UniProtKB/TrEMBL annotation:
Main subcellular localisation: membrane
UniProt membrane topology term: Single-pass type I membrane protein
Name this protein carries in UniProt: Inositol 1,4,5-trisphosphate receptor-interacting protein
Keywords: Cell membrane, Coiled coil, Glycoprotein, Membrane, Nucleus, Signal, Transmembrane, Transmembrane helix
Gene this chain is encoded by: Itprip
Length: 547
């Protein structure tokens, strides 16, 4: 009961205390403050909504950026894969190209001179032979005996006489030269058709080469087109000769290639030894302001030296000696009182290292060096190795083999045709190169004397093929199958094959003239041979003699 009464009293007191009349009037502004609060709450809500929109926009931008980055990464990855694929294809293409090039070189080295191996291959050629009456064996045998052998019987005696006189002349030349300042002349060597026994047309001319060397302490440093130096394609087959001191680096010191300051001194070369007066190099027959040997200067010096030498020994002989051709400085002629004369060429050459390859100043009576780039460019001659190769192969051939006879007949026909229609770009050296290729390609028994007709046809057909393709490769340059017994320098075997017909590719008029001359020679062949052949019975089967 008391508890219930207490609760009722507490309730009444609470109601009285909370009655509105007990609050002061200033508390009557509560409704107005509530509206402000509500307004602020709305503003806050609006700002929160805007902030939410901004955050959503930022999140969307970040997602777009992330997608762009992922897409760019995919593109980069694809480009990398594409690049890798492209690099693989490029590398594969290069490998295929290199393999093809290696195969081409191997094929070229292995087959470019294998031109006469099969009779069927030769039968495919010879379009120009259609309608041409080729002389038979008997007619060729008679022609060779009556025309070739009858006119070449005195060659051996002539060679002996010329060599003896040339040795005497060079000995006198050494005596008139200054041993301390002039070039040192060595013994001469016979090369060419007269010493390979296939020259047939008169006048007979002996070709002698004379190696020479500079005085001490100088030496020749030879550079060829295939020795790693930069030579343009039109200078293949040429080289340069640098005159150096024996104690000088062949490649040259850097002080020769770099301008040193006035206060700088090369520790290898002193100032005195590093510079040479131009007059000193000109005395060494070099081109003006260079160290390179000048072919024109060499020929002038050689002419003067030969003239002095002849003046010293002329009283010993009962004939006169003179220079026969103005455009061939080494062309000499012996004139006897009877009116007869003997011509020979004495040409100075420079030995290439320790080989029998020589730099030759000029080619007498030849168009091989008609377009020499400059007087400091010297053509290389392999005449000594050519003579040795013919001698080496001749030892393996049957007795009285027909290889020299083929070249003699072909050279005679070509010379006769040129006398009728004028000279052409085709030379006897081209004919000799054809023979060298066939000698290397055909077995020894194919050169028996009774096979003269077949081998002569092979040479003509091979020459026709070369004219058609405008390709006749030098026999030694680029030929890896040169017999090791010759001791031929390996640098020339590894070089690119040298096309002797390359000058005719751009000179179409010369090429046309050469082809026309060849075809005219084929058409006139029977007439030219019959002109020098007497009538013989059909049973004539005598072998062909060789000198």
């Amino acid at each position: 009961m008391p508890v219930g009464l207490f609760r009722v009293c507490l309730l009444v007191i609470t109601a009285i205390v909370n009655h509105p009349l007990f609050f002061p009037k200033e508390n009557g502004t509560v409704p107005e403050n509530t509206e402000e609060i509500i307004q602020k709450m709305k503003e806050r809500e609006e700002s929160l909504r805007l902030e939410q929109l901004r955050l959503e926009q930022e999140i969307a931008d970040q997602e777009a950026t992330q997608k762009a980055l992922e897409k760019a990464a995919v593109v980069v990855e694809e480009s990398k894969e594409e690049k890798v694929r492209w690099d693989i294809w490029t590398a594969l293409s290069m490998v295929i190209f290199l393999l093809i090039e290696l195969w081409r070189q191997d094929f070229q080295e292995g087959n470019w001179q294998d031109t006469g191996g099969e009779e069927d291959d030769m039968a495919v050629l010879g379009k120009a032979f259609k309608g041409v009456a080729f002389p038979d064996k008997a007619v060729l045998a008679s022609f060779y005996e009556k025309r070739i052998l009858a006119t070449t019987g005195d060659m051996a005696r002539m060679r002996e006489m010329v060599e003896g006189f040339a040795d005497d002349l060079l000995e006198a030349l050494r005596s008139v030269c200054n041993r301390d300042a002039d070039m040192e002349v060595e013994d001469c060597m016979g090369v060419g058709s007269m010493y390979e026994n296939w020259r047939v047309r008169k006048p007979f001319v002996c070709d002698l080469i004379v190696p020479f060397a500079p005085p001490e302490p100088y030496c020749f440093c030879c550079q060829t087109w295939c020795s790693g130096d930069s030579f343009p394609p039109d200078e293949q087959g040429y080289g340069t000769i640098k005159v150096c001191r024996a104690d000088e680096d062949v490649m040259g010191c850097i002080c020769d290639k770099t301008k040193l300051g006035e206060d700088m001194l090369c520790l290898v070369h002193s100032q005195v030894s590093s510079t040479r007066p131009s007059s000193e190099m000109e005395d060494l027959l070099c081109f003006k302001n260079t160290q390179y040997l000048d072919a024109d200067q060499v020929m002038k010096w050689f002419q003067i030296a030969v003239t002095k030498a002849w003046n010293r020994i002329s009283h010993k002989y009962e004939f006169d000696l003179s220079f026969s051709l103005l455009d061939s400085p080494g062309a000499l002629k012996i004139k006897f009182k009877s009116g007869k004369s003997i011509a020979f060429n004495l040409t100075p050459v420079v030995q290439y290292e320790n080989s029998d390859v020589y730099f030759i100043s000029h080619f007498p009576r030849s168009s091989l060096a008609a377009d020499i780039p400059s007087s400091t460019h010297w053509f290389l001659t392999f005449a000594v190795y050519e003579r040795r190769f013919i001698q080496l192969v001749s030892k393996t051939l049957p007795a009285n083999a027909c290889h020299v006879s083929c070249l003699q007949i072909l050279s005679f026909l070509h010379g006769k045709q040129c006398s009728l229609t004028g000279p052409s770009g085709l030379t006897n050296y081209h004919l000799k190169t054809v023979l060298l290729h066939l000698l290397h390609a055909r077995p020894s028994q194919d050169w028996a004397p009774e096979k003269l007709e077949a081998r002569l046809q092979d040479m003509l057909k091979f020459l026709e093929k070369c004219l058609h393709e405008k390709k006749l490769y030098h026999f030694f340059i680029g030929n890896g199958k040169v017999p090791a017994e010759l001791g031929f320098p390996i640098i020339f075997q590894r070089a690119e094959p040298l096309n002797l017909f390359r000058p005719f590719v751009l000179r179409r008029d010369v090429y046309r003239k050469m082809v026309d001359t060849f075809h005219e020679m084929l058409r006139n062949m029977s007439a030219l041979i019959n002109e020098y052949t007497v009538h013989i019975p059909l049973a004539h089967t005598n072998g062909i003699r060789k000198e």
